[in-house]
Amino acid sequence: MKISEVRTTVVGTPWRELTFVEVITDDGRVGLGEARMLNKTDTLLACIAELSRRYVIGSDPFDVEKLAWQLTWEEYGRVGEVTATALATLDMAYHDLMGQALGVPVHKLLGGTMRSRVPAYANGWYQGGRDPEEIAALARAVVERGYRGLKIDPFGAATAELSPSELRRAVAIVGAVRDAVGPDVALMIEMHGRFTAATAARVAAALTPLDPAWLEEPVPPHDIAGLRQVRAATTAPIATGERVHSVPEFRELITGGLVDVIQADLTHIGGFTGLRKLAGWAEAYNLQLAPHNVCGPVGTAANVHFAAAAPGLKVLEHFNDFADPWVAGLVSGAPVVDASDGAFALPTAPGLGVRLDHDACAEHPRTHVHFNLMREGWERRDSLSAVSS
């Protein structure tokens, strides 16, 4: 079985573009991968095309370590977001092909079944205004759908600093959500790396009494000293890692004791191959994994397979019940969160278990959207005027 072709398809939504990658073999099998590339889809497509010509065509899809080594070492450059994402889509598709060839689901290739249910938490649900009671009503609806965890960024378009009145508003929003969902539902606070260390520490201290499951990216990913300052200001767990694109770059976060929950993104850290290596490191330091997942149905399926096999899993992120729920129709076999327990079922079909519907994809052409977290109204996600340049 050798790879003969790599094909890409981009689907547009009002706030994200989903890039699907099909890796086709000489015996007619098709392996799938997917990534959501923030604001650089054209660059990703060019990278996939160039690297595929150089390394993928004619290769054996069982050689995933070789592919990762080639894209890391033979390219003689630091692996950044674009290359790591291109590698991830190909690595996903390789694993899909391996599973199909062997007649087993991908999680069986990752060490086997650790759990029969994969717990999920909801994101993308807070698409109203920033009125605390309005958001509280939306939060109640999330819990009614079975979710036992939900994430929110209550800070609007804040950058670097937060005024006293905006801090009070953010605390009021989180407080209203906590009152609405009760003490037993996990509430994750998304900070999107918005703040200086001093501001993030002040925000952390103000929100800690509301018992957040974690504070996510309180400072930009490069600000290690700032993260230490935030760590000293709160007893709440710290989560970070979605914008770290290679395993070695986690070294200071992990060995410095600066992270409790590792949020590496399978689609931005080289796919299953990269994330499995990071999972071993996390286990050595007694840390938990909560993979960042802003993908459509293929990337989500890949994350469910990884989560089913990962010893240190805490929970998996999921957007597709609330932001662009129609994306489930882009494939057959889309993973679904069960309303009875807020979890994904264990996949059983060979490979990833999903197949792309090209006709459905054609109904949603590219939007070329620019998603800007520093623009007022970004959280609506359903309005191009709110996020487009």
UniProtKB/TrEMBL annotation:
Lipoprotein in keyword set: no
SUPFAM superfamilies hit by this protein: Enolase C-terminal domain-like (SSF51604), Enolase N-terminal domain-like (SSF54826)
Keywords from the named record: Lyase
Molecular function terms from GO: lyase activity
Pfam families: MR_MLE_C, MR_MLE_N
Domain Mandelate racemase/muconate lactonizing enzyme C-terminal: 132-237
Protein name as catalogued: Galactonate dehydratase
Organism: Jiangella alba
